[in-house]
Automatic annotation (TrEMBL):
InterPro entries to which the protein is assigned, alphabetical: CoA-bd, NAD(P)-bd_dom_sf, SUCC_ACL_C, Succinyl-CoA_synth-like
Region (Disordered): 1-30, 334-364
Composition skew (Polar residues), residue ranges: 11-30, 336-351
Protein name as it appears in the record: CoA-binding domain-containing protein
Record's GO cellular component terms: mitochondrion; succinate-CoA ligase complex (ADP-forming)
Domain CoA-binding: 41-135
GO biological process, one term: tricarboxylic acid cycle
Organism: Elsinoe australis
GO molecular function annotation: succinate-CoA ligase (ADP-forming) activity; succinate-CoA ligase (GDP-forming) activity
Taxonomy of the source species: Eukaryota, Fungi, Dikarya, Ascomycota, Pezizomycotina
Signal sequence segment: none
Amino acid sequence: MWTRSGGRLSFTLSRTSKPHTRSISTNTAKSDTGTLHHLQIGKHTKVIYQGFTGRVATNNARESLEWGTNIVGGVKPGEDGEHLGLPVCPSVRAAVDRLKPDATAIFVPMTGAARAIEEAIEAEIPLIVAVAEHIPVHDILRINEMLRTTKKSRFVGANSPGIIAPLGNCRIGFQPLPIYRPGHVGVIAKSGTLSYEAVGSLTRAGLGQSICIGAGGDVVAGTTLVDGFKALRNDPDTHAIVLVGEVGGSAEEDVAHLIQRYKKMDPNPKPIVALVAGRTAPRGRIMGHAGAFMAPAEGTAQRKYQALQSSGAVMVDHPEQFGPVLKALLHARRSMPQSSAAPTQTSSPFASPQKRGFHSGTRPTFATRRLNQSQTRQLHLTGSTAVDILRPHISDVEFSTKRGKQSNSVEVGISINRVQGRPQTIYRPSALGPNGNRGVAYNLSNGITPRLHSRIVEECQKYNSQEKIQIPDFEQFTPYLRDIYNSLAAFHKAHEAISITAYLSLTSSGIPVLSSPQIHLDDSAFKSAGRQTDLFALRDKAAEDQSSVAAEDSGIVYVTLHPDDPDATIGTLVNGAGLAMNTVDVLSLPPYNGKCANFLDTGGKATSETVKRSFELVLADKRVKVIFVNIFGGLTDCGMIADGVMLAFKEVDMRGVKVVVRLRGTNEEVGQRKIAESGLELEAFDGFEEAAERVVELAGRNGEGEVRAEQ
């Protein structure tokens, strides 16, 4: 609570004397997963570091200690000693015995991160947080299976900023501390940068945060949006919830179902405000985050948006809007009698159609574009290459590179159930289109057992009946399904695939045919662990988008958008995949209705040289008339970004292209001052809406500044 002493206001955490009592009752925790209560961190939480003496961990721990985090020591394999005035233990087990930690922060390089997580699970540390990117997907699948078996630990990550409780001064991760304030808004987000934007907006609106959970942007997360929502929903210290989703998986739709049930059961539910990034993302491309893509049978980000909106969540288009919108919602909630229901979207006094800040009406559906380009963070094998790879693994079937009659085929395969963190089967009659699927999840270690196969066939038969899909001679398929699924599951595990799909049909003589196979392989297994080298040797960079390949060499993610549309004249340069997706979304959708030529994520380790290289990549597209540099500095320093912008103006041929810059976050004043004093021909803004309006305005003008006629 807030108290006044000697003219000064101070904050006291009233629950620090009671470990792990922040929110979830024992019964609730057990009914969910049994470990969600470990997310309720605070002053009581004793934290250790794995990789404690490394440079990054040292700097991070020093900052967290100064902020008030209760760090009690760390681990350096094989060594005893002291670091930062705290004990260093030779193993995780020794640290547990000696220091009795409640949580561990794993600051270990990606090559050793999976083993470090496993050691923490084996030592039964309650909360395990891993921030490393590029941990192989199948390593995380194995880790999730360990967690389900032991039922002792809660895992946050990987590829996540971690978890932070401003209300309890506890940081386990690398969040930028200056933007956080203690309060009662909980945040769960896939994107780190978008979560920082959201928190910055909340803080500017005078709304502090209770706990902020980074689900991470990987294909499989230890703590999903579903888990995070459950934790925040039940937390008495959280009075409102911010949810940030993105393209990929189905967690947002699962949360929408939970919200609907929650609003029916609670007469005065907490306000929930949400955003979904990637609503204009092209199907078939990975948008920066390893998990930011639509896998087979997964819906679009627009479908997620609509599901959350229908559930009663208030939707915003940009994270800068979270603060004002949530402040209004909380004010309205406090003004209501406690026995009455919270306002729905449509009855909310702020749901005016003239208000750009957020939307309550039905939004238009936007067609998802498809690009015939290879994945940039997976290896995508199709055609004869995929046939040649799969043929030795599946016997007694014929293969074809072309699909047969759609009405007579069923898409079968193995993908990943991202919410459960397990592989799952794919069964999708062609007549249902891209979004219908009946999948059965299974454990990676067990594979598809005879009992599970019986369930798969039963589910397929139910699906056919429910959807009124007439699969000719379905009974003739069933003898082949077992061998096909077993073979695909074995291949999926052995070669660390993200997904494998093909269309199953029967010839007139009853011979099964697998046509048009597609294989997506995890590049982290190759790049981080040196595995699957034979398959990754098949990658043909010459056949890929050369701009994407050139960007990859510089640690940048670049995707060409609308490659055949001359009106796509807006170039984007953004830090963070989530913010980059959201920037393209907002510029492309009403009310701006612009057209972006690219998606560009500078990466989390951007330097001034990276920014300069990003300008070169964007300017290589001759369609671009204006570049929008949209930065929210978390790890990225706005002063460094400003240096990069000035370097680009000095060393790169800008060819008269206009530049609009928005800098917020870490050292924003420094960056803004550098831009203001540079004398460069660019325009700088604090707010996103003003910047976006100017970008679209400049994109609609010709080189002489005249407004282009619109048809």
